Amino acid sequence: DSDLSMRTLSTPSPALIFPPNSPGFQNGRGSSTSSSSVTGETVAMVHSPPPTRLTHPLIRLASKHQKEQANIDRLPDHSMVQIFSFLPTNQLCRCARVCRRWYNLAWDPRLWRTIRLTGETINVDRALKVLTRRLCQDTPNVCLMLETVIVSGCRRLTDRGLYTIAQCCPELRKLEVSGCYNISNEAVFDVVSLCPNLEHLDVSGCSKVTCISLTREASIKLSPLHGKQISIRYLDMTDCFVLEDEGLHTIAAHCTQLTHLYLRRCVRITDEGLRCLMIYCTAVKELSVSDCRFVSDFGLREVAKLESRLRYLSIAHCGRVTDVGVRYVAKYCGKLRYLNARGCEGITDHGVEYLAKNCTKLKALDIGKCPLVSDAGLEFLALNCFNLKRLSLKSCESITGQGLQIVAANCFDLQMLNVQDCDVSVDALRFVKRHCKRCIIEHTNPAFF
């Protein structure tokens, strides 16, 4: 709450998010959370400026003479704003009710770099309209200080709310609308076209979003100077089920600066989509294609073109991936730090061996539900990946306590070990705990505690 850059609206901050006719609205007192409404609708309300004189019954002047100016009121505005920046939002709300000067200071744009709205019933479109209108009073039609908008889980968000953001927030750098399934491509296109500094975009769970691109008007206008480029570096499209290779191709062509891309459960993506991605986006550091069942070893051959730039890769439950794909990645991506290959049943000890010998700086590995990985694979890990901190072997049927002991004896920095549903003895678990003091062991052995 004391972070100036993370001032939020999840609690009433002087813009109150109150259900109509709620007790919090009737008695004029702010609360730390939004209460439920009888009608089920929550709207944004903005305080009217309080009178200049102090009228609140709980406020007492330090001086005996009420007409004397309080010491704090002698501070200049910039000092007051600095003090307000350390207050939690509910206290900032109370300060806004003291007097007209404090009301104006509480609405200083520097205190509102971030807007965060939560709740399934909130009328988020109206809330965004009211808030941006108030923040635009000093700079008509634009909120020059607003950089982050987080409205994740607000299911009533529609294209209208995103249009408001696009038109009023040209300096926007981060937008999260995960779980807002009513928004469409057109609204997203408007945001990325009118907010040229946008770097972080989370549209996970927005099932109607099939692409990220500029509007036609923006494309025509910007093409000669910018080559139709979008400045997004972080893009999360998890659970965008209708995203296809064609849409991924368009994203790659427009978002060439991508460094973090998450396509979890985008089930229509294939190896061809990854081929197009690697043509344009050569700076990707983190990539997730978990549960993309059409991704195979050929797709990983394309991913391997990222070479030493790739640090994080998730291919969990990609059933068509085998040792061949892992060899491609291990051969060319020697600086890989994290690999999630859970549920890739085609991976064996040979794939783990090649990975361990080529990616020696590996810190986290998940090979759970890989029944062909045994103690032999663990031995290669233990003898090559000394920096390993997290290891998941959940449901690996061929793993025994002997393999765990080899790992524990060589990877002293191990912090997390998952051996749930593995046939390992209590003695082996105790051996791990004795050699890896900070290791948290997740297990299903009732005899070990």
From TrEMBL:
Subcellular location as annotated: Cytoplasm, Cytoskeleton, Microtubule organizing center, Centrosome
Bias kind Polar residues: ranges: 1-13
Give GO BP annotations, semicolon-separated: cell division; protein polyubiquitination; SCF-dependent proteasomal ubiquitin-dependent protein catabolic process
Write out the function statement from the record.
Substrate recognition component of a SCF (SKP1-CUL1-F-box protein) E3 ubiquitin-protein ligase complex. During mitosis, it mediates the ubiquitination and subsequent proteasomal degradation of AURKA, causing mitotic arrest. It also regulates mitochondrial function by mediating the ubiquitination and proteasomal degradation of the apoptosis inhibitor BIRC5.
Record bears the keyword Cell division: yes
Q: Name one Pfam family in it.
A: DUF7885
Family per record:
Belongs to the FBXL7 family.
Its Gene Ontology cellular component terms are:
centrosome; SCF ubiquitin ligase complex
Name of the protein described by the UniProt record: F-box/LRR-repeat protein 7
Name the major location.
cytoplasm
